[in-house]
Design goal:
alpha/beta, Arginase, Chain A, eight-stranded parallel sheet, 10 strands, binds N-[3-({4-[(3-aminopropyl)amino]butyl}amino)propyl]acetamide, binds zinc ion, His_deacetylse_dom, hydrolase activity, His_deacetylse_dom_sf, hydrolase, Acetylpolyamine aminohydrolase
Length: 341
Amino acid sequence: METIFSETHKRRNARSELYGGELVEPFERPSRAEYIVERVRSVRLGPVNPPDDFGMQPILAVHDADFVAFLQSVWTEWQAAGFKGEAIPSVWPARRTSTHIPKHIDGLLGYYALASETSISDGTWDAAYASAQVALTGAERLRQGARSVFSLCRPPGHHAALDMYGGYCFLNNAAIAAQHLLDNGAERVAILDVDFHHGNGTQDIFYEREDVLFLSLHGDPMDAFPYYLGHADETGKGAGEGFNVNYPLPPGTDFVTWRKSLQDAIEKVAAYGPEVLIISLGVDTFETDPISFFKLKSADFITYGADIAALKLPALFVMEGGYDIAEIGVNAVNVLEGFEN
Ligand code: SP5
Ligand code: ZN
């Protein structure tokens, strides 16, 4: 399996994450991608190639244009306002507030943020842009006939919504890849999100559409980030009714239980009959992940990679989360090897 990877991910190197009232080193840090690409190379998964550049158009086919412009300029504007630290929102539109978009960068930041753990700093946009290109290049390889591709995206994307960033995500790489396939001849795409966290951004982007089936297995939002989306009763809206499927699972969920939801999701994907399957691949379901509460073991990642392969669909794996960094390479590549064998 070919891996697409951009060194530009290193430009995303924030100093701070607001966690439990402290500013800590971000869980989502550059070494994550380095461990994964190292593992890809050591098991000889296949060639590792840089992305092509598809420009802004496929990003703007998914995200709000003002939001994208904000991401491009926020760091410069934040500094120009005289702030000394990284860009962290401290105020939000909340219940019963107006829908006017403020001018001051402090207000604008909260307007476009869905969480405050994701500090913005120099290079964030460059890395987010490159990460989207990594996903797009993977999608393009499938269009050219590849059976499977690994888009080693960093920063991740599945929390990024139409016009919101957060949860370590800025641009929704999986959604951008899906839209690119739809805009180039595909009629139906399925996105299976196996990251520990609910893919709220992907759900948001496709919620009213029937050309993308979105399925997500995740920590129950009653107990886990992103808290405000990901319940089982969110099934889609309008033309999209029935094309959004959530599997919220409780603290302590082990592989046997998790796999039952996966099997159900796989049956639904098969019934939908998409041309392509995109997997939002987060390995924060691992038993020792520092911010998550599922109990998957390293060998389980091989097993479920094989489960997904049984669908016999062209597959684009898009890297999302996973924060037990010492094991992230083994776990992510186990899925890919399970899929291939
Ligand atoms: C892509 C991805 O995996 N994003 C995850 C973003 C999670 N950010 C909020 C983390 C809050 C963790 N709180 C858990 C308490 C654990 N003791
Ligand atoms: Zn996650």
